[in-house]
Amino acid sequence: MIRAIISDMDGSIVSYKHEPYNSSWDAISDALPREIQKKWFEMRDHYVGREDQYAEWFQKQVELLKGLPTKKAEEVLFPVPYSRGVVDFFSSINGGHVTGLLSSGIDFVAKRIKKELGLNFQISNQLEINNSRFSGKANSRVNLYGKLDILNSLLKKYNLNSEEVCYIGDHFNDIPLFENVGLAVAFNPKSNRVAEKARHVIYDYRELEKLLK
To answer: Model-level pTM?
Structure first.
């Protein structure tokens, strides 16, 4: 029996316009001056896939946000661009499951999603804000390549075993979680390998209702 529904955020629960990751990280860059935004994507393309350099990538990209007013970020990030069926699905749960986000995306978005969808928790990367501006510092709570360790801590916190968890993700860093939960679901998977590692592939969160039954 599935007792917990845990989802990735970027590219799964939300889909921002920037391809190929549809992420909150790339979306917030729209609030930056054009030259800094260009550096943002150059940096992303340089570091992606370099697991051993993730901490360096994270810090350097966060520094590009220094001084950005949170109001400008809100203008490009909100309203949250939920993926198809997300709001309807989470409205239908009625407290019957532990629900949450596990994401290497930014808490500026994840906190809003937690509130709007009524989730039990969100774990994401924390951007520091001072006087309504991003400070250029952050707390990397969710390493892009380390989500499984956090999932294991969540199992202990909520007294769950892995077979009682449904996890929804879309990208390569979700595969380790697919291999360690009872119900692995790929939402609009970004590669054939992601689709193959999931038990089910969906393109609308409302399809989860049938899978859970």
So the answer is: 0.94
